[in-house]
Amino acid sequence: MGKDSKPKDAKGKDAKGKGKQAAGSSGGDEGGGKGGKGKGGKSADGLGTCTYVKARHVLCEKQGKINEAYKKLQDGWLDNGDKVPPAEFAKIAQEYSECPSGKKGGDLGWFPRGKMAGPFQEVAFNTPVGATSAPFKSTHGYHFILCEGRKN
């Protein structure tokens, strides 16, 4: 289904008030007129390397350690239905992450589709802005991600 298949109001919401863009994304009309055709289940921003995500992550070699770090987030925010503030996520990353980015609070900055390997990219591009993914395994170890933004 194309992204323009339903009538939208000025904020990019369909007639039922459900937005197609992730919460917190900037510029509802950014990239307008380019005719991007997002597919169902994929990013509303379209496909290809022109779509970027801003994310933080925690990487651990051992599953037990990633689960311990994730539990801290669950106990503090996730179990209450709250979103994890980036500053709090950064503290967990500094304490637990075995990736060099851990020293920067797990901040990976903006990266394009196609830069990260398989499951990491899938999770990063499918996690809603402001949300924290569940732990998952990649070729580098075990991760969880905080998605901070999307842009074209």
From TrEMBL:
Composition skew (Gly residues), residue ranges: 25-35
Region (Disordered): 1-46
UniProt keyword annotations, A-Z: Isomerase, Rotamase
Signal peptide residue numbers: none
BP GO annotations: rRNA processing
UniProt similarity note: Belongs to the PpiC/parvulin rotamase family. PIN4 subfamily.
Protein name: Peptidyl-prolyl cis-trans isomerase
